[in-house]
Design brief:
By secondary structure, the chain is of the alpha+beta class. Helices cover about 15% and strands about 35% of the residues. The strands form 3 sheets. Strands 2-10-9-6-7 form a 5-stranded mixed beta sheet, with no helix packed on it. The protein has a 3-stranded antiparallel beta sheet with strand order 1-3-8, with no helix packed on it. Strands 4-5 form a two-stranded antiparallel ribbon.
Length: about 160
């Protein structure tokens, strides 16, 4: 045991030295302490198809489709009234419901406009919600498709039409 621990560290290059240790502490402080007024992350809009079962919703040509949209807001109010870590007390982001949001069904290179609605305001119900009711177009092929509205997407499967009795 002729070598001391300090010599062992120096020989293998494990030592940071004073400048390296100081740089590491400054970096750790910058990562761990948020900037003044730091906000959380606002979620983007989402689409949900009212359909039974699990997995990718099925749609059929000629049937009525109900699609729910949530979080269709302009702006971001994610700070609330919290004074906790990463939040700014008293600051609130301005938000307004999106207007004229168009729901489109896309399959391959084709697309069909299913409707246009305004998102609800706070006095109309949960803010940022939209409900579209539309008839599924007749000229779809069985297989995958997507519902799209203002950045939100919901995969669907176009099912073979049910036989008429």
């Amino acid at each position: 045991m002729g070598d001391s621990w300090g010599n062992e560290v120096a020989r293998h290059g494990w030592a940071l030295g004073r400048k390296g240790t100081l740089a590491l502490l400054v970096l750790a402080a910058a990562v761990l302490v948020p900037a003044e007024g730091a906000n959380g992350i606002c979620v983007g809009p989402e689409l949900r198809v009212r359909a039974g079962g699990d997995g990718t919703p099925e749609v059929r040509a000629g049937e009525t489709l109900t699609v729910e949209g949530v979080c269709f807001m302009e702006g971001c109010d994610d700070t609330g009234d919290s004074t906790g870590f990463g939040c700014s007390a008293g600051e609130r982001g301005a938000t307004t419901p999106r207007r004229d949001v168009t729901l489109v069904l896309r399959q391959g290179q084709r697309e069909w406009r299913l409707g246009q609605e305004d998102a609800r305001s706070a006095d109309e119900g949960p803010p940022g919600r939209i409900t579209w009711r539309a008839t599924v177009p007749e000229h779809l092929r069985p297989g995958p498709a997507r519902l799209v509205a203002d950045g939100a997407e919901q995969p669907v499967v176009v099912a073979t039409p049910l036989p008429t009795p």
